[in-house]
Amino acid sequence: MLEVRELTITQGGKTLWDSVSFSVAAGERLGISAPSGFGKTTLGRVLAQWQPATSGSITLAGKPLAKKGYCPIQLVPQHPEQSFNPYRSTGQSLRDAWNPQAAWLDRLAVNPSWLERRPDELSGGELARIALLRALDPRTQFLIADEVTAQLDAHIQAQVWQLLLETAAQRPLGLIVFSHNQALLEKVCTRLWQP
């Protein structure tokens, strides 16, 4: 169980989230919908330990998240280039987390040649698939998908969501889905939350 209690996030002198609390169970798929600029991406960054909260707590199975090592809450951001080192190949960044078998690349339609390139040599859709693949490390317990398929065509979107839903059921993997697409949230999520 991922539990967020009285979380406040202030950025640039503005409070984006004020004493917000929610929980997500293992295998649950929570959809969060809010207008652009509301702070969904910043919330995702805090949950994945990319940046600190102003106050409040985030616990996993009743324990605070470790400050070092692999974070079991992984974020795939809306702009995936933000999660890659621009000076390293995407394959190097992927293997920093884990080394997936070829079947995983096939399921996400990742061309192995992309892994030899730097992030600026790939499209947003290509990077999004590699970022998602990296986040599906077997150690990941909760995955935050921030408009994760927005840059993909309809066929690849369906393929990605099928994989995510199958993986969520098998592990079980908790999903937190940020999207403006209400129909998508209603289709893939087990519960919706609107702050």
**CATH architecture label name:** 3-Layer(aba) Sandwich
Q: How many extended strands?
A: 9
- Average pLDDT reading: 92
Please state how the strands of the largest beta sheet are arranged side by side: 6-7-8-3-9
Largest β sheet strand count, sense and barrel closure? 5 strands, parallel
Strand percent estimate: 25-35%
Question: N-to-C terminal Cα separation, in Å?
Answer: 20 Å
**Count of distinct structural domains:** 1
Overall shape: globular
Topology record:
Blueprint: E1 2-11, E2 14-24, E3 29-32, H1 40-47, E4 55-60, E5 63-64, E6 73-76, H2 90-97, H3 102-107, H4 124-135, E7 142-146, H5 154-170, E8 174-178, H6 182-188, E9 191-193
Parallel strand pairs: 3-8, 3-9, 6-7, 7-8
Antiparallel strand pairs: 1-2, 1-4, 4-5
Walkthrough of the structure:
By secondary structure, the protein is α/β, with parallel strands linked by helices. The protein has one domain (25-40, 70-193): P-loop containing nucleotide triphosphate hydrolases (Rossmann fold). Helices cover 30% and strands 26% of the residues. The strands form 2 sheets. A 5-stranded parallel β-sheet has the order 6-7-8-3-9, with helices on both faces. Strands 2-1-4-5 form a 4-stranded antiparallel β-sheet, with helices on one face. Strand 7 (142-146), helix 5 and strand 8 form a beta-alpha-beta unit.
